[in-house]
Amino acid sequence: MLKFPIYLDNNATTPMDPRVLEAMLPYFTNHFGNAASRNHPFGWAAEEAVDYAREQIAALINCNPKELIFTSGATESDNLAIKGVFEMYASKGNHIITATTEHKAVLDTCKHIEKLGGQVTYLQVNSEGLIDLNELEAAITDKTILISIMYGNNEVGVIQPIREIGQIAKKHGVLFFSDATQAVGKIPVDVEADGIDIMAFSGHKMYGPKGVGALYVRRKNPRVKVTAQMDGGGHERGMRSGTLNVPGIVGLGKAAEICRTDMASDTARIIAMRDRLERELLQMEESYLNGNKESRLPHVSNISFKYVEGEGLMMGVKDIAVSSGSACTSASLEPSYVLKAMGMSDDLAHSSLRFGLSRFTTDEEVDYAISHVKEAVTKLRELSPLWEMFKEGIDLDSVEWAEH
Amino acid sequence: MAYSDKVIDHYSNPRNVGTLDKSKSNVGTGLVGAPECGDVMRLQIEVDENQVITDAKFKTFGCGSAIASSSLATEWLKGKTVDEALAIDNMEIVEELALPPVKIHCSVLAEDAIKSAINDYRVKNGLEPLVEAKAHH
Q1: Are B135 and A403 in contact (CB under 8 A)?
Q2: Does the domain formed by B5-124 have CATH 3.90.1010.10?
C-alpha cells in the first residue's frame, strides 16, 4: 500500500529509524542527567551513554572514540573545523583551499575567513563535478594550512577522490578537512585509510535525530587541535563548550551502529532502485544524468529534463517530495550554484530534479515516481514553447530572448 | 509554499494551450522571458476586422504560477478588443490567482506577453508599436 506523499528527498533529511528513537527515549526522562556531573549516578548514566555512542560512531568511521567532538550538526562542525583551524594555525599560515561545489556552510565560512584576512582558493570542478588533483596540488603554498573538500556532494552525489586528496595533504604537511555529511553512514568512510584529519557529519542525514552532529579531530599523526568557537565549560576536550545533548548523542550513536551493520544490504537495495529509476527516466528524450556516473553516492540521482522547468515539474508530481535545482522562488532567479559550477547552462540547471532514496524507500514508491515523473514531463513539454521550437529544429541559442 | 486553488486549477487544466498560425496577418505573437531565467511565455492572439480578439493561445515553460498566469491571460483576452486587452494590468492577474510576492514576476511576464503579441499584430498591419513592455528595466 502506497502512502502519500512519497518522500524522495533524503539528501535534505532522512526519517529517523524507529530503533534510534527507541534508544533515545529513556534519556529524555529516566536518564536525564548532565554528562558533566561527575559526582552522582545521574551524571554517570549520561556519561556512560555518551561514551557508548562515541564507540558506536568511532566503529563506523574507524577512529578512536576520543577523537569525536559532539556538535549541533554539520553546519556547526564545518564552522568549528574551518574557523578553528584558521585561528589555531595562524602562526603557520592563512591559506585555505576548497572547491566551488562545497556546501554553503563551508563556502560561507570561507568567505568569513577572507574577511578576517585569510586567503581562500576555490578550485573549479569539471563537468562531472570532480576537482582536478593537479590543480589542488599546484594551489598549495607555504602558507596553506587547510584543504577543505567534501566527501560526497549533496546535490549530485559526486564523490571526490578523497584518498588521493589525503595523500597530497600529507605530502605537503597540510591538514585535510572533509564535510562528509552525505557520505557517513551511506558508504564506507575510513578516516585512517582516507587520510582525513578533520571530518564533519550529522545525525539527521543518516536516520538519526536533527540537532546533533560530530566533528572528528585527529589525535595523532598529526595531533590536530581547533580553537573553540564558543566559550564556556570546556566540554569536548575544550573544543566545544555546552552541555552535551545526551538523547541526541545516543541517537547519533545508534544511527551509526545501524548504518554500520546494515550498510551492505541497504546499499545493494538502494542502488538497485536508483538504477531502475534512472534507467527508466533517462529513456525519455532529452533527459540527462548530472554528475559523474561512477564515483558517486548510492542514494542520489540528479536528472535534467530539458525544456521543462523544475519547479513547474515538482508541482506536477506534488505527491512526490523531491527537490529541484531551479530557484524560481528566490528573488534572484538563480539556479543551483553546484550545477552551474559544473558548467551547466542556466536553462538545463532550471530543468533538474534531485531524487534522494533511503533505506525506507520501497520498489512501489520508485515505480510510482517513475510513471508520474514521466507523465508530468510529457504533459509539461506539450505546454512548453521551447519543446515545440526544439521539435521544429530551431536552435534555442540562436533566439534573441527578451530580457527579463 | 502552497499554491492557491486557482493556480492549481489553471496548472492542472490549462486553458487555450496551443499554437496559432503566425504567418497570418491577423495573428500576433508574443514571446517573452528567457530559458536561463526559468520562464518563457509564448502568447498568441487572433484579431478580427473589428479589432476583437477572437482566439488566444499560449505555451509556457516555467513554474506553476507562470503557467497559470498565461492560461488566465488567454481566457481574459478572448472577446476583448485590442484596446481593452492593452488595459490588462499584471496586478489584476496577481489578485485573481492570489500570487505571493515572489511570483509577481510571473504576472508581469504575462502582461508583457499580451503587449508583445499586440505589438506584433500592430507591426504586421502597418501600425506603430505602442507600448513599452514592463519587464524591460
Answers
A1: yes
A2: yes
Q: What is the spatial distance between Cα A295 and Cα A132, in angstroms, rounded to a whole number? A: 14
Domain-by-domain residue ranges, chain A? 6-11+263-393, 18-259
Q: pTM of the predicted model, to two decimals?
A: 0.93
Peptide bond into A26 cis (omega under 30): no
Q: How far apart are CA A263 and CA A258, in angstroms?
A: 8
**Distance between CA A14 and CA A22 in Å, rounded?**
17
CB contact under 8 A, B31 and A402: yes
- Answer whether B76 touches A (CB < 8 Å): no
B110 touching A (Cβ < 8 Å): no
Distance CA A275, CA A294 (A): 12
Q: For residue A37, give how far its alpha carbon lies from the nearest alpha carbon of chain B (Å).
A: 45
Query: Which residue of A305, A306, A309, A372 to mutate against B (max B Cβ within 10 Å)?
Result: A309
Strand arrangement of the beta sheet that strand B39-47 belongs to: B27-34, B39-47, B53-61
Q: Find chain A residues with C-beta within 8 A of B66's C-beta.
A: 309, 312, 328
- Interchain proximity A331–B3, CB inside 8 Å: no
3-state helix, strand, coil in chain A (%, to 5): 40, 15, 45
Residue of A128, A140, A205 lying closest to A167 (CA atoms): A140
Mutate to test the interface with A, among B7, B40, B42 (most CBs of A within 10 A): B40
B33 CB within 8 Å of a chain A CB: yes
State how far the alpha carbon of B90 is from the alpha carbons of A321, A377, B16, B17, B103, in Å: 31, 28, 19, 20, 11
Chain B residues with CB-CB distance to A384 below 8 A: 59-61
Separation in Å, CA of A317 to nearest CA in chain B: 11
Architecture per CATH, A6-11+263-393: Alpha-Beta Complex (3.90)
List, for residues A73-108, the tens digit of each pLDDT value: 999 999 999 999 999 999 999 999 999 999 999 999
CB A106 within 8 A of CB A148: yes
Q: Is the sign of the CA dihedral A96, A100, A103, A104 positive or negative?
A: positive
The three cell numbers locating residue B85: 486587452
Q: How does A165-186 read in b/e, with b if 16+ C-beta sit within 10 Å? A: bbbbbeeeebbbbbbbbbbbbb
Give B-chain residues touching A350 at CB under 8 angstroms. 35-36, 38
Give the chain B residue nearest A328 (alpha carbons). B38
Q: Which amino acid, one-letter code, is at B71? A: S
Domain boundaries defined on chain B:
5-124
Residues A249-275 have pLDDT tens digits of 999 999 999 999 999 999 999 999 999
CATH number of A18-259: 3.40.640.10
Each residue's pLDDT tens digit, A129-158: 999 999 999 999 999 999 999 999 999 999
- What is the CA A321 to chain-centroid distance, rounded? 18
